[in-house]
Amino acid sequence: MSLGRPAITRRAAGAAVASGRPEAIVRVHGLTKRYGSAAPALVDVSFSIDPGEFVAVLGPSGAGKTTLFRCLTGLTRPDAGSVSVRDQDIYRIGGRAQRAARHEIALIFQQFNLVRRLTAHRNVLAGRLATVSTWRVLVGRFAKSDRQRALACLDAVGLLDRAYARADELSGGQQQRVAIARALAQEATVILADEPVASLDPESASVVLEMLHAVARTGVAVVASLHQVHLATSYADRIIALRAGRVVEDAPADRVDAQALEQIYARDTPVGSPA
Ligand code: ADP
Hints:
Layout: H1 10-13, E1 26-33, E2 42-49, E3 54-58, H2 65-73, E4 80-85, E5 88-89, H3 95-103, E6 105-109, H4 120-125, H5 134-139, H6 144-156, H7 172-186, E7 190-194, H8 202-217, E8 221-225, H9 229-235, E9 238-243, E10 246-252, H10 258-266
Parallel strand pairs: 3-8, 3-9, 6-7, 7-8
Antiparallel strand pairs: 1-2, 1-4, 4-5, 9-10
The chain binds adenosine-5'-diphosphate.
Adenosine-5'-diphosphate binds near residues 35, 38 and 67.
């Protein structure tokens, strides 16, 4: 599948580093978050993610996945710990540096978050907002190069023929592919996908996860929270499993004990119980 951008191999993505592993693009250190007096939603969570890695975050309901994503995107401020994107701590920088760091991150949500009455093409153009002047956005006049770029991104997700359909005329799977095209148009180096396939039928879910996998292969770090262990082990490179706010597993997908992970789901874990 063409993704409309040069095919960057993982090795090339980390070429700035003279040898060994590519330099991590996202670093999470000691993340801790408590809501009020309840048991903590996240406890001392640390990991880092390399360019080109597709990481699945797994965990039963209440494990802290949403809180983790909110902390990664800057929507929820952690009580302790840090989140760095390209060595910039997103909670310590401000102004232009903060905007630049946020621009590196594209978000994909369970409910697609498209503007339903706008065309797929206009939704993808929204990914160009950070690089387009405000007046162009207000009057909806994008440069030809941006419009062509948006079409190329739709082509990359196999939706060129639906470019001028309204978002609400598309199936759920197609809408999620438009959201991926928007992330490509943004030229994000990190994609955070919070339950991206939870609303999709199995076939559409597979297509979307295959696309996220292909996007990761272009050098983008992709982090997706998933509910089904078999989807995580089939498509992700690495699994981070949370339980009661703690990391209980962080391993390459082909080395995780899928049965043990299934048991984490099977157990009805009261939130805040010891991990
Ligand atoms: P998950 O996404 O894995 O289901 P969450 O991050 O939503 O987990 O929730 C982790 C814990 O934090 C749960 O106990 C949940 O009830 C609690 N929690 C999440 N958001 C809030 C909030 N805004 N206020 C209070 N408690 C919250």
